[in-house]
Every structure is written in C-alpha cells, then in structure tokens.
Amino acid sequence: MEKRTATTTVSVVDGEKEDHEIDTLSNWLPGYWHRFPFIGATALLCIAVLACIALGVLVGSDGASTTHWPQRVAPSIVLAAINAISSLCLTVAIGDGVAIAWWRRAMKGSTIADLHYQWQLSHGIFANLFTRPRSVLSSKIALAVLAMQVTLLNSILYQRATSTVLAPDLPRNLSAIGIGAEEFPFTGYVVSDTSSAAQTSFMIGDSFIPVVNTFGTSNGFFRGYNELFRFSTDSVQERMDKYGYCSGVCYFDFEAIGFEIDCIDATNHTDIALPAIAAYEADGDPAAWTNIPIFNSSFALKYASDATNYSRIVLNLQYFQSDDPYNPKSTTCPGLVTNKQCSLRPAIVSYPVKVTNFTNEHVINGVSLSVRRTNADDDQSINADVAPPRYNKGLKQVEGFKVVEYLYPQDGKEMRSLTALGGIANAYAQFLSSSAAITYTGDEEWSLDQKGTLAQTMMYGPPNMGSCDCSFRNESLDTILQSVNQLSFLVATGMVDTTTFKSLPHKKETFPAASPSALIVAVDSNTTTSFRASAGGAVQLQDVTHYQTHYVYAGVAFAITIVCIALVIPSYWHYGELGRRVTLGPVEIASAFGAPILIDNSQIRSSEARNETIDTLIKHIGDRKIVYGFVDVNKHGETSHQEMQLQESASTSPHLEALDGLASLRQTTTTGAESPTRSPALNQDDGPAQSKMQKRRSVRLAMGAPEYVRPTSQVFPKSPRVA
Questions:
Q1: What is the pTM of this model?
Q2: Using one digit for the tens of pLDDT, what is the confidence trace for 45-83?
Q3: DSSP one-letter string for 314-362
Q4: Environment class of residue 424 by beta-carbon count within 10 Å: exposed (0-12), middle (13-18) or buried (19+)?
Q5: With pLDDT > 90 as the criterion, what percentage of the chain qualifies?
Q6: Residue where a domain stops, chosen among 510, 541, 572
Q7: CA-based Rg of the chain, rounded to a whole angstrom?
Q8: Residues of the signal sequence (predicted)?
Q9: Which structural domain, as residue segments, surrounds residue 439?
C-alpha cells in the first residue's frame, strides 16, 4: 500500500484578495476579555442578588405585623416581583449562553443534523428527554434550558414560603378620657324606720334598676360600656373630639366612685361535730345541733356616728375549712373557722379598666375590670380561667385597684328619704348574700341546707353527702370583693346619661367638643359629672395580621435558584474561543451557511457576509425586501435536489392547482427592462411548441425577492364538492 505523505500547496493571490483576508481576520478577535459576556454575566449576578433579597424579605417579614410593614409592598408582592425579574434575567442569561454553546459546537465540527438538534433543544427538552435522554443530559444547551423549566417551581415555592396569621400586635401607648360619677348618686329609698339598716330597710330606685340588672347578668363584662371611653395616639388633648374608639383591647386606669375595703379577720380551730352530737344525745337544746353555720356572707349599712363621720357598708363573711375533707367519719369534724368583717368606705377609686372594641360585628364590645397580664398573651380562653385579684390589706383594696380619696355621701335614716348607699347595699345583699348550715339528724348523719349561689360555688371537696366535712375556698373573700368593685364601677358609669354623645356601634365618632360634662340620672335627683383624662397612660393591644415565613419552602426556592445558575454557567464554557459576538438569529445562521439571498449584493461580497458581525450584515442588506412563497428554481436555468415538480406535486397536494391563477412574475429582459409575464413554471397551455421540460418547471418554498416569488396567501385548498 502506498504511504500517504502530507503535501503543502502554495497559492498565489492578488493583492486585493489578500487585503480582504486580512480585513476578515481583523474582525475575528477571540479572547476572554474581548468576548466577556457582560449581559449574560450581569443577568446571572442579578439572579443571585435577587435570590438573596428574597431570602432577606422572608426573614425580615417573619413575625412582622401589617401595621409595622409597608402595606403597598407586602412580602408576597415583593416576592412575585423578584420572581418575575429573576425569570427575565434567566431568560437573558440562557439566550446568551445557548448562543455561545451552539456556535462553539459548530466551531469544533459537527453535522447539520446535530446543529439542528441542538437548536431544537434551545426551545425545549422534554420532547427529546425520553427518546434521547443521554444526548439531552450531555448537552450544555439542554442543561441551560432545563434551568428555565426548573425555575418555574419558584413561583409556587415563594407563594408557599409566606403566609399570614392573626396575632396580637405590639403594645401601643395611648391617652384616654372617660366619663363616670365623681359623687355617689341616690340609688334608692328608705322604707323602714329603723336604725338596723338591714337589707329590708331599703328599696332600689327605678333609675338604679338597669344597673342592677346589668350586674346580675353581665358576669363581669359590661356590654356597650365602651361608649364611655375614647383614646388618642397623642398626649392628653384639650378638645374631646380629638379622641376616638379603642382599636382592639385597651387597658388603662380610670378614677370614679368606689369603696375603700378595710378587712379584719379572726380564725378558730374547732371540731364542729362533737358539741352538736353530745347535745343531741343528751337531749339538750336543739339549737346546739341544728343549723350549725359553715358558710355565711351578709351585708348591712352602718350610718355615720360620733365615732365615724361617714356611712359605710359592712360585709361579714364566715366559712369553715375541714382538716380532712375526705374524712369518712361523721362523728368528728375538726377544722378552721374563719370570720372576716370588711368595712366598705365610700371613696374615689382608680379602676383597672379593660375596653374591648373591635370593628368585627361578630365580636361583642364592652368593658371589664382587669389588670393587663404581661406574662401571657391576651387571650379570651386564658382570661376566662384567671382567678379573681387577691385582696391586699395594705392597699385596702384588691390588687390593681387604688384608693385615691374619701367621699362623704349623706344618707337619710327617715322613712321615704333618699339613700345613696342603701340601694347599693341592697343589691349586694340580693346577689352576694349566701349561707350554708348543717344539722345533725342522729345515726351519724348530717343534713345540709344551702341558700344563695356562693355557698355552692365556693364549696370544694368530695360530695360527702351525710357528712359534716364541708370545706370552702379561701378565695371566697376575693370573689365577693371582685363583685363589689364591679357593681360600684357600674354605679359610677351605668347611670350616666349617654344620649348626648352615644354613637352608633363601630362608628369612629367622638365625644362632642362642646360638652365638658354629662348628666348622672339618679333616683329623684340628678347630678352632673365631667369628662376627664385617665390617671395613667393607656395601652392598646390589637389583633392584627402578621406575616409568617415557612423556611422549608424558602430554602428550597433559594436552592433551586442556585442550581439554575449552576446549570446555565456551563453554556458559557470557553466563550473566549469565539472571535465575535454571536446570536442564534436566523439571518446570522443563514449568513454562516452562505445563503445566496444574503450574499447576492454588489455592496457586500460572499466572504464578507459569512464573516461580518450580524449588525454589520444588517447594515448592508437590512433594507432588502423579501417574501416567503413559491420560488421558480429554474429562473437561472439551474436545478437542484430540493426542487419539486409542480405537476407531480399537484396530484398529491390539490391546493397547488390554484397556482394556475396566481399573479404574474417579473422577469428581467436582456435589455435590463422589467415587464410583467407569466411564470415559466405555469406556461402549460401556450402551445405544443413548448417542450415537456418547460411544461414541468420546478418550484420550491423559500425566501426570495418579491418579484420572483408567488405568494402562498393566494393558494387555497379546493372546497369539497357537494353531491
């Protein structure tokens, strides 16, 4: 076999051709700095920065309330904008990278089929993912396009990454004003000419009845009383119409009539069963074993005297606590007997007021007496289990309340005279008086007699029916005093005439600026009271919408973004090998393939068309008019393997028969003039002189100058014939 040897051929070129080749090489400038893809790199950098911003928004908004976050740029809106901009940047980056990868593949050497396949991948990979998975996964173009498909998940993940929940907002300091009685109004009449001032000595007046009914049915929550209080975000205002409703729950201290509570107590440890059983067995006095008190609460009014210059209400409380509530025996019942006597002296008291005011129509608005809890959320279910505030002997009130100054109401003793404290004492007696007593019936059996509510609600321990071991809670006094303060607060606020300023529910109306005082509708005699600011600053707690971040979704979205960037970067590999900026535009690719329509120009040579940048090429031939349609390939007397025979195609494509009626083409004559004539491909009926070859001219679908193209818009399929 003859050995092949390498040979070198030296060609002599003229000066003009050599200069052109030098110009062509000067347009090809490879290098990693010259060809750095600034647009694509900037797009990838923007994607990374936007991903960090999205993560920062999610972290920063977690737990933030809508009142402290710009309402117009909610996290979901910011994330949607970031996702949209990231998708746009990714599209730019992929377009730049795919063009670089495609042209580099062409530079390395490939086939037309492979280049076409790579170009197809730039428009989607799923069509070939199952038929040619290995080719898809090994293609840099496919990886870049895969990034675009994967990043679509981010729109869903970002939506799931943030949500909203309803929770209390941060406390907000406010100033507050309210209206309440500063002097005790008359609440009833004296109906018994006696100095005992017992419950039966007084009758509640008509003006006081609504207050008593509210006390008996409210369970400590006074519906609608939020109308008496207004709040402002500024300091104390001179004009009352500058105040508005509380938005949510507001806590503040409000001064009005009430009572100083001064209690003394005594205890005695004894066995309440032994004396009763001994008297019963000895046939002694029945009072010794009958109705032995184990619980009792009662109220009475004490008038002013030489010893005390003020009238007062006296509370007496007695209750028994067994040493062993589970004692199975009934012959002995040792325990502690506690006696408490409390003097309720009229005074101005600072009440801890809780105003509930929501715009939600399903929420009942009103007022209750409650100290704000700083160690727990303000939740209704939590507050329902809160024990009553404990009595503080040093404060002479329960915790959270404060005695400001004493008052000296004048109460008459005579029949039919008006009374201020008598109606209140009567209401206390009606609702808070209670008793429980046991009676020994022999054979180690005891009967229990209870009257009123407290004797039943304050009892604890097992239901020792027939036993004497009945115990009562130490919270009995606290429970009674809680009700005492609630009724005194209602006396201060519930008898105010609100017709002059009471607004419709949930409207942001305020107190009238021209009404510095209000009327107290008392029994038979009215008084006035003034609007005044609260003694302490108010605090508002509002249930508002809070943003909540789900970090699993946020982390997955961030990871997908990084993966997408990593999938796009390989398409830029060795970008510096390219000598000019490239795209996947059809004109640029057609120019690289040497399309005649691009190089048939006196102003630009074919070699220039293949080597100039796309911008230069468009500058030279961009104004050339072209149209897509049927082109006569034999116009220059040439034939090719791509041509199609009109007559043969017409038999399989009926719509081509319509070509017989198309507009004529322009043909250039030998003199250079143009005249309208019929296309040679259609001159089938001009006479027998024409050869068979002339009758069967070839046409193909292609781009061409308008004068050489028959438009496809004039070709229509035949309508089906109706039989």
A1: 0.64
A2: 999 999 999 999 999 999 888 888 887 889 999 999 999
A3: EEEEEEEEES-TT---SS--EEEEEEEEEEEEEEEEEEEEEEEE-S-TT
A4: buried
A5: 31
A6: 541
A7: 50
A8: none
A9: 172-541
